[in-house]
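debug: dumping io for the single-chain case to check the tokenizer round-trip. Nothing else runs in this session.
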Amino acid sequence: MELFSVFEPSRNPPLKETDSAYMFAFSDPDILMHREAGGHLSIPRLKEVSADLPGFGEPVYIGSFQGISCYCTQGGIRNLPDHYQLLNFRALYGKVEEALWLIAGYARQICDWNLNFKYCGRCGNINLTQADELAKMCDRCGLVSYPRISPAIMAAVVRDNKLLLANGTRFPNQEMYSVLAGFVEPGEALESCVRREVFEETGIRVRQVEYFGSQSWPFPDSLMIGFIARYESGEIRPDPEEIRAADWFSVSDLPLTPKAYTLAGQLIQWFKDHH
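debug: decoded output
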């Protein structure tokens, strides 16, 4: 599912709001959820949150989903009424329908942008939000700032019928293995980034780098770009600062890997389907 096939972004809220408007409220690293009878979780409504939790910031209109308005906000709320719950944002997938999960990711990035770009990065003046585009402009020096998007590559490196997987030093789960990943540097082509990151992290050189797909990853502002690459040369020598362990795995002996909704999981599923 693509975000903008189900969600219409906008900066112009309706003149009169309805009770059904959604509120995507964040309290790092969590998202506010409404807990219904039986424990079911849902995205709360603007009217409810505004009345029950005044500690959140001013709601920001971000667009509409199926004709229902969507707002986002941030706050430091911890003492919640019983019918609310703070859920780690990474755990939201599967708790709500996919469209609302995608909108929540968009809302999170807009909230972060509003928080982190309140002031001009060049002269320190307060930025003004533009009405005609998703941008902030300093009326003192004219610097225009857009929501930050940080491109990062993911690479499924294949050697014969085996896949190169690594256990990263920053992985919360020390048993988890995934494909290699890294951020794109200034002036660098995506394919060059794949070759550099794979070599820097494991000592493996690759060839035949082919585009696979992409995924917005709002933790906090990444755009993950997936590739398939073929082994060329080298032996595994993990970078100890980035990689705890790395190895070649066949379909029959894959370790614990990311879930299928992630781009990493989709790359690994591609390997399983074709090998």
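debug: round-trip ok. The chain has five helices and 16 strands.
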